[in-house]
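Local shape tokens

___
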Amino acid sequence: MRRTLFLASSLFALALAGACASSEDEELRSNPSPPPSIPISDAATADVPADPEDSAVVFPRCSAAGWCKTDLPDADLVLKDIVPFATRAFAVAESATLGVKVLEWEMATDGWKYIDDGSQGEFGLGPYVGKMWAPSENEIYFTIAPAFVYRGTRPSPGAAWSWTRDRLVDFAAGPTHAAHDHGYPSSRLMNGNLSALGVWGVGRDDVYAWYSNAVFHLKSEDGGAPTWGVEYVAEGTEAFDEHLFILAVGGTSEAVWFAGARARGIDGCPILARKTVDGIVRIVDGVARNSAATPCLARDGALFLGTAPGWITDLHPLGDDAIVALKGRELVTLATSGSDYVVRSNAVTPVAMSGKPQGFYSFWWTSNEVWLSGYSQLVRGDTTDVDAGATGLATSTVSLTNIPLDVPLYRVRGTSETNLWAVGAGYALHKTTP
């Protein structure tokens, strides 16, 4: 099959007024420089804790851009994912004191409450969570290490939840690498670990889960109870210290995409496979090298997404024949054209902060807007311009006091342009204004 690759790279740089310049780390310096950039204005900032000696200090709940704090039941919750609906939302969090917790927010009370049954705190579970998904307000899925998928159901809002869990199989070959376990690879670009664990669905009867290098599909055989059958295993390691990981699944009922990494140490190449009625084909791949200077080289017979560092960690479908993928600091669009694939890459550079993640954690795409969440920042652009390959992106301020928020914002998601959420370490921010 002949494949053509067209790269139209545009760099959108964030400019932080008054911020001190800081040098990039060795890994970033050793990669090729991106093309000229279009500045991104403003900077993501957040609250300053009130001085306990000054009880007269009162901070507003919302930033100038309309991001409003919501009250969490405990201060040390690190929210890793959120699934919103019109008048409620569900989130999964990690806590150093409470372990993994699942929460629900209701518009009527504008507050969060715990809804889990506490079993996720049992010995042998944790310490990290993966992605979550919910087909309705009365059914949710979340994932927890080492390889568990929880499903919660209730008859109606306000009723008690019932929980079940299943353990996924570990198909990864070889021993656990010193830098990570099979579900928790360490990324140099993100300055930490990413979860190779999650759940996503097209609908309530078409649900996928992933762990390590495998994707599973919830199926019912001969009318029996649904079980997690193996859908795809990413194979083909080429060195003793190389692993393959699935980091995201997304698409439509006609085409589902499996994305992730071919990792050596804490570097490597992005991978992407596509499932259709004709089968599953790995489209994107590379030759991973245990080198900070050149972590990935082109592979014969596969699309190569360039030398910029980053794995594919988030996906959004553009119909049955195209997908937008988040690759570190890039939004990459892949579209089928007959037997070819046309690829467009738009680089988005976050505010440089020494020793902090140099890529984005997630993105949210609508017909009009694209949002990206990173360390201490949220970035917004117009999807029509991004899709055309040239636009400026602007930081959406989350500050109440013009002081930078020194925490990661792991997920941005919404149901519309007036119902957006951004969650991270100690924060669940809600935006209801355009």
Q: What stands out?
A: The first helix runs from residue 26 to 29. The chain has a mean pLDDT of 84.
